[in-house]
Design a protein that fits this description.
single chain; 311 residues
């Protein structure tokens, strides 16, 4: 009887709290509705990966085939080539962009002229809002071997043109440069927000003790935002098996297909162009599972070195 009364009081207390913050909860309704409609309900389509899907029969009427689709794609050389390229491009981009984003954030944080700081931030944020179609056009105009601005400048000083867009190694370099230019400014937002929370009294105490600006940066600033850095690194690592369709599809061409064909473009070609919906769904499911595993491993590693992690 006491348990029932206790549960009743606890339930009434919970309802009371919800009512007190009803407008805040009401603001969550559109977000929850979005995720239910566009994230959770479409998960039913995952069953296509385990069926011999026929677009005319539909999902429910198509016969089950177990793991036959997975067995087929795992035997495909092109599939493993796409995975390799995805990992190479993601690791190369992470290796360059992650430390560079932190460095740019620290440099912006040291700017004392507010107007110049705002102008610099706006210039750095702007590329994030430019479509990859436009970025690909800019890259072609800059890096083209025949009439690209960079190769023209190289030829003017007596050098030989570089095949940025048609050589495998140079194409990876071009891809990383374009990604870093487009996203480095946007990536500084989180770090700049974290830097505003650093206690100014620690800087003052270090200054009075004779610490240089670089020493204050190393011994105060970086340790103060270490948890944010670790969290961002975990989030980046958890996406190692994912890559956007736009960049490799628009920057790539037949000459560099060996390195530009990633999971997203491979899925697009077999799912949209060849209408192999079961295969493309199976690849997407495999990709998501691997990303989740990487996320948990990265989180465990972060906790092992003394950080909180994100899970």
């Amino acid at each position: 009887m006491r348990n029932e009364l206790g549960n009743s009081k606890s339930f009434s207390k919970t309802l009371g709290k919800i009512w007190n913050y009803k407008w805040i909860y009401l603001m969550l309704v559109p977000v929850i509705t979005y995720y239910v409609l566009f994230k959770y309900i479409p998960m039913y389509g995952i069953t296509i990966a385990f069926k011999d899907y026929n677009v005319f029969k539909g999902i429910t009427a198509s016969p089950w085939c177990g793991f036959d689709v997975f067995s087929k794609i795992f035997k495909s050389k092109n599939f493993w080539n796409a995975i390799r390229n995805t990992l190479v491009l993601n690791f190369a981009t992470l290796f360059v962009s992650f430390p560079l984003t932190i460095i740019v954030s620290l440099m912006l944080n040291e700017v004392r002229n507010k107007h110049f700081k705002k102008l610099t931030q706006s210039v750095l944020y702007l590329p994030h809002f430019i479509s990859w179609v436009v970025v690909a056009g800019i890259a072609t105009n800059l890096f083209s071997m025949t009439n690209g601005s960079i190769n023209r400048a190289i030829e003017n000083v007596g050098g030989s043109p570089i095949p940025f867009m048609s050589n495998n190694g140079w194409w990876i370099f071009t891809y990383v440069v374009c990604n870093v230019w487009k996203e480095i400014g946007w990536g500084t937002i989180i770090y700049l927000a974290a830097l505003t929370g650093v206690d100014e009294t620690m800087y003052e105490a270090a200054y009075l003790d004779g610490a240089t600006q670089f020493q204050r940066l190393i011994y105060i600033t970086l340790p103060s935002i270490k948890s944010v850095i670790v969290t961002m690194l975990i989030l980046q690592i958890s996406k190692m098996m994912s890559i956007g369709l736009d960049a490799p599809l628009l920057l790539g061409n037949k000459k560099v297909m060996e390195v530009s064909e990633v999971i997203s473009t491979y899925t697009y070609r077999i799912g949209i162009e060849k209408a192999k919906y079961s295969d493309s769904t199976a690849i997407g499911l495999f990709q998501s599972v691997i990303n989740i595993i990487i996320l948990f491993v990265a989180d465990k590693f972060a906790k092992a070195i003394g950080e909180d992690g994100i899970i």
